[in-house]
């Protein structure tokens, strides 16, 4: 009997050791995994919360973080944001042209060789162009499934990758006092702040989008532009929609959180663009979300994967959703909404969210979207 108990104890210790080692290794690759397991455990016993987000800020405290108290004030903030990014007022800034390579491939050339390659797919005549902005992996299966669903709905899609991702290759830049440096990742782009050129390096994430919006509406014959982004592409969607009011409707999935909701996970904190305080000193995330639906005929939807083990999971959006909605309603702005997706347990666009996005796009294309 004693031997049997000893064998059981040794087996349990062995299993726990293997679980600990495996979990530690997996956590290194997926820093949000332990938070995800915690949320799963809470969910299993009927507690729908993430204790990392039990701070809790009141609606009044969150509202105090917003700088937009009128549409005119929002437009002025947008102008300050534009000047920060480009070094010029929007009216004075010359957008780089969209260069057409063939019927499907386009490129927008930028300083330092940070060119943006764009792929346009169209199932036929469509009045609506959907800009689909991919994340930190080059046009992976997540975006491919969503792109296919949008095309099946009869809408055109212009697919973007982030800088230095996919067809947007790493670049070499001669930097004063540093020499020739290979810029391979977004975090490396911080080095470009020390080059004496107008504006801020974050402009290279969004200026190509503005160029293609201009091309779509003024040259290609589209009547409206909608922008959708996942993960890092969702971040790009937030900033693009904040700055370019001709992006009439926007959707960002698993994209970001205000800083007061972020955990200590490195993926939750994000890359250079996600936490560059030069940008967020001008306009914080609540400001950026609101600017995306500032005008009365615009709308924005955020999708949060509640059990996302990578980043921006939990239920924190419930705290700021009513604040943004009430503020936009008071100033005569557009529509802003947030969906908590509990149907998925990973960093992805769920079939449920994909279906909701496509239905929304069809309503927009028919002119039936209720703001």
Topology:
Blueprint: H1 2-29, H2 33-44, H3 59-63, H4 71-86, E1 98-100, E2 105-108, E3 116-121, E4 128-133, H5 141-152, E5 156-160, E6 171-175, E7 179-183, H6 203-218, E8 224-230, H7 232-243, E9 247-253, H8 266-269, H9 277-282, H10 285-291, E10 299-305, H11 317-331, E11 335-341, H12 351-366
Parallel strand pairs: 4-5, 4-8, 8-9, 9-10, 10-11
Antiparallel strand pairs: 1-2, 2-3, 3-5, 6-7
Q: How would you describe this structure to a colleague?
A:
- The chain is α/β, with parallel strands linked by helices and 371 residues long.
- It has one domain (56-366): Rossmann fold (3-Layer(aba) Sandwich).
- Helices cover 40% and strands 17% of the residues.
- The chain has 12 helices and 11 strands.
- The protein has helices spanning 2-29, 33-44, 59-63, 71-86, 141-152, 203-218, 232-243, 266-269, 277-282, 285-291, 317-331, 351-366; strands at 98-100, 105-108, 116-121, 128-133, 156-160, 171-175, 179-183, 224-230, 247-253, 299-305, 335-341.
- The strands form 2 sheets. The chain has a 9-stranded mixed beta sheet with strand order 1-2-3-5-4-8-9-10-11, sandwiched between helices. A two-stranded antiparallel sheet has the order 6-7.
- Helix 6 crosses helix 7.
Helix share, percent: 40-55%
The portion of residues forming beta strands comes to 15-25%
User: What is the annotated CATH architecture?
Assistant: 3-Layer(aba) Sandwich
Q: Average pLDDT across residues?
A: 87
Q: Output the strand order for the largest sheet.
A: 1-2-3-5-4-8-9-10-11
Helix/strand-derived class? alpha/beta
Instruction: Give the overall form.
Output: globular
CATH class: Alpha Beta
Spatial extent as radius of gyration: 22 Å
Query: For the report, how would you describe the main beta sheet?
Result: 9 strands, mixed
DSSP, total strands: 11
Calculate the terminal CA-CA distance, rounded to whole Å. 72 Å
* Topology pattern, helix = H, strand = E: HHHHEEEEHEEEHEHEHHHEHEH
CATH superfamily name?
A: Alpha/Beta hydrolase fold, catalytic domain
Query: Low-confidence spans: pLDDT under 50, at least 5 residues?
Result: 15-53
How many domains? The number is 1
How many helices? 12
CATH third-level topology: Rossmann fold
